[in-house]
Design brief:
Elements (H helix, E strand, L loop, with lengths): L2 H15 L18 H15 L5 H14 L2 H8 L14 E5 L9 H9 L3 E5 L6 H13 L7 E4 L8 E5 L2 H11 L4 E4 L3 E5 L6 H12 L9 E7 L4 H7 L10 H16 L5 E2 L4 E4 L9 E7 L2 H10 L4 E5 L28 H7 L3
Parallel strand pairs: 1-2, 1-4, 2-3, 4-5, 6-7, 6-11, 7-10, 9-10
Antiparallel strand pairs: 8-9
Helix pairs in contact: 1-3, 1-6, 2-6
């Protein structure tokens, strides 16, 4: 299978997924014998019964973000930086990928990277997110039958692989390093994202920031879990701007986390700010609990930049409009990574290409 054939298959996948960005666009049958549209639509509608965090709107959000990246223009823009891919791969490697399940389809980019590189994908599915990726795998095999020799999805122990990619917590990373350290590997650990506010943001910018905070209930490493604010920052403006997300408290698991954290803060006399659906706590940490948001004051940009640089191994991305801080994300865009926005800033595709050497 040539690189162009692989690209064409993923463009077709993008077109397929684009029908599920909004409810009501799915009533188009791809094939009279195999109705992937019906299968996928049922999975979207019923996923919450298996994983209560996977509500329909969030699944469609994840699907839409993937569909928007899988265009011919985006794929060619991404891959032009890897001219080695144009050479036919004669020594394909079996790449095991331990997939996370914190947000819908979070492991898709690793799947895409392995397959687009011409290697064999062996995905160990998370029990929290298995059916959607299985169906995507079957769809790819349907539109490009040669993928039957490239895609293997399992739910038990990984075996017979040449390289490994894992995503997990700091605790699980120690387990991964012990068992997989002898293989070529990418072992990802805990990361969190933050936002730098100046106090001059528009209401529209802060409204978009609410997406970065609350999409997927804040469960993703690209969700903002920490605010850096100037001294004497007026949080009333921030609270007003994010009020449109008050519906999030209607989700019982989110509400349970909010109530639990609030109780802990009250019992321990820990100061916090509260708007009824999210708790703000001053804290130098990066990883805030669900339904909570940490904040930290800064006195000048230089010291803040130095602080962020010293903790870069804990940071996935930073949101701000201030050009003083380099490599930042625009408001509302943290959960819409581009194909070249690699997790933990590790070039996954370069790693995979180098496996053939």
């Amino acid at each position: 299978m040539t690189l162009q054939e692989r690209i064409n298959a993923f463009v077709k996948l993008g077109n397929f997924l684009s029908h599920f960005k909004k409810k009501g666009n799915e009533n188009i049958h791809f094939d009279s014998k195999v109705s992937f549209y019906e299968i996928f639509n049922n999975l979207i509608s019923n996923a919450f019964t298996h994983n209560p965090w996977f509500i329909e709107n969030n699944i469609r959000l994840a699907i839409g973000a993937i569909a928007d990246t899988l265009t011919l223009e985006n794929l060619e823009k991404w891959l032009k930086h890897y001219p080695e891919l144009k050479k036919e791969l004669t020594n394909r490697k079996r790449v095991g990928v331990v997939m996370a399940g914190n947000i819908p389809l979070v492991g898709f980019h690793d799947m895409l990277s392995v397959l687009i590189s011409g290697n064999i994908f062996i995905g160990k599915l998370s029990s929290k997110d298995n059916e959607l990726l299985k169906t995507i795998g079957e769809f790819l095999k349907f539109i490009q039958p040669e993928f039957k020799n490239y895609i293997f999805l399992i739910e038990d122990r990984l075996k017979n692989f040449d390289a490994i990619i894992t995503t997990g917590s700091n605790n699980t990373s120690r387990y991964f390093e012990y068992y997989f350290g002898k293989y070529p590997n990418i072992i990802r650990k805990n990361r969190n994202s933050g936002a730098i506010l100046s106090g001059n943001e528009t209401m529209n910018e802060l409204r978009k920031l609410a997406d970065d905070i609350f999409q997927y209930f804040g469960l993703g490493c690209r969700n903002v879990s920490k605010l850096f604010v100037p001294e004497n920052y007026d949080f009333s403006i921030f609270f007003k701007a994010i009020e449109h997300y008050n519906f999030i408290y209607d989700h019982y698991k989110y509400a349970n986390n909010y109530d639990y954290n609030k109780t802990i803060y009250l019992m321990n006399n820990i100061p916090f700010l509260d708007n009824g659906f999210v708790l703000l706590k001053e804290d130098h940490g990066f990883s805030s609990p669900i339904a909570s948001l940490y904040y930290q004051y800064y006195s000048n940009k230089k010291s803040l930049a130095e602080h962020l640089e010293s903790h870069k191994n804990k940071i996935q991305c930073i949101v701000t409009s201030d050009k003083y801080f380099h490599v930042t994300i625009n408001w509302g865009q943290t959960q819409k990574p581009r194909l070249w926005d690699y997790a933990d800033n590790i070039d996954t595709l370069k790693f995979l290409i180098n496996l053939k050497n």
